[in-house]
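BUG-417 | component: ligand-complex export | severity: low

The export step for pyridoxal-5'-phosphate jobs runs without errors, but we want the raw record kept on the ticket for reference. Input record follows.
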Amino acid sequence: MSFPVAGRPSNEVIADLAAKRITDVRWEDGRTFGMVYDGGPEVREVAERAASMYLHENALNTFAFPSLREIQSEVVGWTASLLNGPDGTAGFLTSGGTESILCAVKAARERAKAERGVTAPEIVLAESAHAAFHKAAHLFGLTVRKASVRPDWTADVQAMAELVNENTALVVGSAPQYPQGVMDDIEGIAALAQSVDANCHVDACMGGYFVPFAERLGRPVAPWDFRVPGVTSMSADIHKLGYAPKGVSVVLHRSKELRKYQTFVFDDWLGGFYASPNLQGTRSGLPMAAAWAVIQHLGMEGYVELTRSVLDNADRMRDGIAEIDGLRVLGDGRFHLVAMAADPASEVALDVFALGDALQVDGWYHDRQKPPDSLHSTVSNSNTGVIDDYLADLRSAVAEVGVARSTDRSTSYSTID
Ligand SMILES: *Cc1c(COP(=O)(O)O)cnc(C)c1O
């Protein structure tokens, strides 16, 4: 592929881009689960207007763009109050859940080294914890100690207790975990971290902008956020159920002292004193401003109303799936994540990957995961109004698939070449 020589008029260029998108999933139809979180036309509009204002701004230098400094501190402060952070809770905006988790792992490693002299740091987590913790361990030289989950898919806290030792820098809980959408026992997990003075990170990338609103709607949940003593850091993605466009998440620490282990400062460069809060250098102001605008536009009341529809969507999906012979929902998730698998108690030996292929023909897009083979749905307001159609198509797809098997057993969801 050779570099384009002559430039072309913008209309032509944009028309070519539009043509490229023909085979992309059509998330506007509501048939895609996860990936795009649609708060509705008004939310999209306010996000787009804020985005076009901040498309060119650079958040690397908040002395040049003091508005971005304010935007960051307000969004972080609002998120801290949502997650019941005590006075002094401090954090930063990042580009996404992965970066928030990388920052939290780095902070835990630095703290363990500085305060306890740990030179071979370890992370204790359950097999349900997000892959980003393994990525962080790989990048930052920590060893992962991985425990199994219990039959209900929650982290096995007793199994984790056996892995905690004097090298433990971080103990991880998820609220909720991604694969089956269940909440870990955060009180138990935080107590493990406290027993060795390690950090405890609650990964609320999925739940941070959902569970607080579900609680306000009366959905019961055991303490899971900064209300639990011993929780030292949390992550919450605004670009998921916060309905902001991609590229924005929050990482929070219980205090500024804990947050200081996250930042990087370097004073021995010809370019001058270099300080950075997270992993990026040059950094777009767009996602930060769009998140600010979406939160202001929706407010607590707007989020609670969106959450009401999402819970209704997810509950109806769970009930509908449970009624279909051959299928079952994994775990007792009460929020917006739904994983379905073949029901071993049924005579119908269904291959859910073949089911996923059949649903895709009707335009429904799920992520695939294993073990066990399952179809995963992150339900959101994008899916409001389509659940009856979905369940009807699901019932006919199950009948159509019968005992057929899909030859494609892969579960990967991104390309690396
Ligand atoms: C999405 C997610 C992450 C990773 O976030 P990205 O924004 O995809 O980088 C981490 N943990 C959980 C529970 C998630 O759902």
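Assignee comment: Attached the raw record above. The chain has twelve helices and 13 strands.
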